[in-house]
Amino acid sequence: MAAAGALRLLVPRGRLLPPRRGLRLSAPAAIQVTVRDALNQALDEELERDERVFLLGEEVAQYDGAYKMGFTGIAVGAAMAGLRPVCEFMTFNFSMQAIDQVINSAAKTCYMSAGTIPVPIVFRGPNGASAGVAAQHSQCFAAWYGHCPGLKVVSPWSSEDAKGLLKASIRDDNPVVMLENELLYGVPFEMSEQAQSKDFVVPIGKAKIEREGTHVTLVAHSRPVGHCLEAASILAKEGVECEVINLRTIRPMDIETVEASVAKTNHLVTVEGGWPQFGVGSEICARIMEGPAFNYLDAPAVRVTGADVPMPYAKILEDNCIPQVKDIIFAVKKTLNI
């Protein structure tokens, strides 16, 4: 089965700087790489590294997949047989057709076999709202899969997240659900020299502080992380310093990083594209309420979520169903009572 396409840089190679004192200095090592190319790089490297890794999914061979990257019952069986399949869903909305294999087979087999049968499989593909595809193609399944013991669930934002989490997921002996975002595939992010290494992985279960702050903690995953950073930049001009946490992993959740931040800022706002009821933000708020960080809160935690309705088709309604930067700013000001 053919591997996904090779890494493609979006910017020209760094030009050599003028020599100084006889030395030739190169441009900074960081490069701009899209999320799509970071995922392709991870797949190429892991296919080369381990002959047990292979790809399954619609059109992954001839057409490099529905989104130019890289079925479920076969994949689960292959994982139990010692292979390491990477199963691509064209969209996680279609994963409902395979929910029995994901939940009842992949997630539970290791436990039910007393640890004797590992299931090293990755289910990956676009998750959450896209653009103009209406209710049956615009749902976030982070809370659905995060609810189920036996699964690990990751949700990348940047190119480094995407590459590092995919490599870590493929190497993990547990079933991992990797929830990407279609609208991020073509977005370029700076990728450090370290992230360009074939040995680079992002640890599953560890959040990342994307921006330091002192007044309020913003916790998000996937595309809303970018919205939080944009809101933080706007609020900084008004003297409000937001600490932005990129959750990266839904299960196991790095609540310790969130607790440490809340202890510093004394305020919490969670942001997600999914529905409010039983959502990721609900879980974060509950665990802060039940833990030591609750004593540090100076105001109730606030959730910013998608609207509690099926996604409309009309663009103006769609925009109002997805958290926007202005919604985050409003929530922060409400929390800080300003």
UniProtKB/TrEMBL annotation:
Which keywords does this chain's UniProt record carry? Answer: Carbohydrate metabolism, Glucose metabolism, Oxidoreductase, Pyruvate, Thiamine pyrophosphate
Please tell me whether the keyword Oxidoreductase is annotated for this protein.
Answer: yes
Q: Which residues form a coiled coil?
A: none
For activity, the cofactor(s) needed are:
thiamine diphosphate
Catalyses: N(6)-[(R)-lipoyl]-L-lysyl-[protein] + pyruvate + H(+) = N(6)-[(R)-S(8)-acetyldihydrolipoyl]-L-lysyl-[protein] + CO2
Please name the top-level EC class of this enzyme: oxidoreductase
Q: Which SMART domains match?
A: Transket_pyr
Q: Which InterPro entries match?
A: PDHB_mito-type (IPR027110), THDP-binding (IPR029061), Transketo_C/PFOR_II (IPR009014), Transketolase-like_Pyr-bd (IPR005475), Transketolase_C (IPR033248)
Task: Please give the function described in this protein's UniProt entry.
Answer: The pyruvate dehydrogenase complex catalyzes the overall conversion of pyruvate to acetyl-CoA and CO2. The pyruvate dehydrogenase complex catalyzes the overall conversion of pyruvate to acetyl-CoA and CO(2), and thereby links the glycolytic pathway to the tricarboxylic cycle.
Any idea what this protein is called? Answer: Pyruvate dehydrogenase E1 component subunit beta
What is the species listed in this Swiss-Prot or TrEMBL entry?
Gallus gallus
Lineage of origin = Eukaryota, Metazoa, Chordata, Craniata, Vertebrata
Q: Which gene encodes it?
A: PDHB
